[in-house]
Amino acid sequence: MNVIVILAIFLIPAGLMWLVENYSQGTAYNLLTRVLSSPDWFQAVVSGVVFLMIFTVSLAGSLMIYENKDIS
Fold first, then answer.
1. Contact 9, 69 (CB under 8 A)
2. Which of 18, 57, 65, 70 is most exposed by smallest CB count within 10 Å?
3. Is the Cβ–Cβ distance between 32 and 16 less than 8 Å?
4. What span, in angstroms and rounded, lies between the C-alpha atoms of 34 and 29?
5. pLDDT of 22-59, one tens digit each?
6. Residue 29 to residue 16: CA distance in whole angstroms
């Protein structure tokens, strides 16, 4: 799981840059431009929501692994 998180940290920004370079007139570019030109408070809210989503998925995965583990 740690490897996936570390790879995501490095690959998601690289993927976003690839999208911007290849589709500079498309929807991804417009969305990324709109988010980056938005007010700071909006960027903070979006970052917080993304963090909470990642945290929730991680917590759910950890709980599923823990519940299925035989501790006896």
1. no
2. 70
3. yes
4. 8
5. 766 667 667 777 878 888 898 889 889 999 999 999 99
6. 9
